[in-house]
Amino acid sequence: QVQLVESGGGLVQAGGSLRLSCAASGLTFSTSAMGWFRQAPGKEREFVARISWSGGWTYYADSVKGRFTISRDNAKNTLYLQMNVLKPEDTAVYYCNTNPPGRNYWGQGTQVTVSS
Questions:
Q1: CA quadruple 25, 26, 27, 30: dihedral positive or negative?
Q2: Residue 18 near residue 64, CB atoms below 8 Å
Q3: What is the DSSP string of the chain?
Q4: Which of 112, 67, 83 is nearest to 17 (CA)?
Q5: Are 98 and 27 in contact (CB under 8 A)?
Q6: How does pLDDT run across 3-60, given as a tens digit for each residue?
């Protein structure tokens, strides 16, 4: 059974930083591409960042490019999202995701709130 457990969210002032973590189990993490999504109140869930199984390839939404960094530690089965220069519009629930062929797995999410 695949489990993705996010942590590291919280309340931060604009301009601050947070690092999110996603602990994965029940899958071969080291061969799984992983991603982060977010959902703000009243809005649809949106893509934030994605990383290849090796970490050698990353891709970001334009809204976070240059401020957020996705990374992974395959030895710890953990995915990270370093978020810098946070803005109020980054306020959302952040979700960890992996989608092997025919499947789509989500964590429970972690709340990030950025105050102005």
A1: positive
A2: no
A3: --EEEEE--EEEETT--EEEEEEEESS-GGG--EEEEEE-TTS--EEEEEE-TTSS-EEE-TTTTTTEEEEEETTTTEEEEEE-S--GGG-EEEEEEE--TT--EE---EEEEEE-
A4: 83
A5: yes
A6: 999 999 999 999 999 999 999 999 999 999 999 999 999 999 999 999 999 999 999 9
Residue 29 — φ and ψ, nearest 5°?
A: -60, -40
| Distance, CA of 56 to CA of 27 (rounded, Å) | 20
Query: Is the Cα dihedral 49, 46, 4, 103 positive or negative?
Result: negative
The share of the chain scoring above pLDDT 70, in percent, equals 100
